[in-house]
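re: ur question from yesterday

yeah so i grabbed the chain u mentioned. its 252 aa long if i counted rite. heres the sequnce exactly as i have it in my notes:
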Amino acid sequence: MDAPEAVLFDVFGTLVDWYSTIRDDARRITERAGVAVDPGPFAVMWRERYQPALEGVRSGARAFANFDQLHRETLDDVLHELGVDLGEADREELVAGWHRLQPWPDVPRGLAALRERVCVAALSNGHTRLLVDLRRHADLAFDTVFSAELAGTYKPDPAVYLTAARLLELRPDQILMVACHGWDLDGARSAGLRTAHVARPDEWGPGVSPRSVPKADLAVGDLHELLARLAPEGASPAAVRDDQPTTRVQGP
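ran it thru and got these structure tokens back, copy pasting raw so excuse formatting
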């Protein structure tokens, strides 16, 4: 693959591990409150409300609402379904957890190495303040962040990807979109961007089978392999990985 002019990254699941943080927060907060919740399934239930909530905005059924608003609404729904009562402060603390998710192990150094070669940015459904907080907390080496709120809708609406291309003053085909989700890569492809799938087999929890195998122009196991595939001829993958073992690329 020819080197792109910019590489855009999905964030939730692709760069940060939402499951572990939300599971651990749920365990801590519910135990403190004296209520019984199985934290792993709770985290999954909450995340599964994500796409239906976004579709309400994409379809025009409701006005644009940012992630904090949507997370609070869907949290209330999940707690009601489980028959769990939590106070206002506990609910707000759970929502705030999405601002301090942990990165996958390859991400901080992988992003920094990529940024030495090419423009690197977030293109996320998360709102700007959320992305800024995640960048600082998880040490995400972006040149800039693009939130879907700039387009007034959510991925995979093509308007989100085209807004980022317009602001970068690039053609869509000069941009590579990186994500672990097929729906995101499909949206990017429909807008004319090139695509790369990075595998995150533990996104929905350890040992949980991936929900799909996305179609993409390039498929890699981590960000170090992505850089090795995009690096100019003669670049040393060993220098990129700092003596970490290399996982075989799945093929474009």
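noticed a couple things. The beta strands are 6-9, 16-17, 102-103, 119-124, 144-147, 175-179, 194-198, 218-220. also Confidence is low (pLDDT under 50) at residues 233-252.
anyway ttyl
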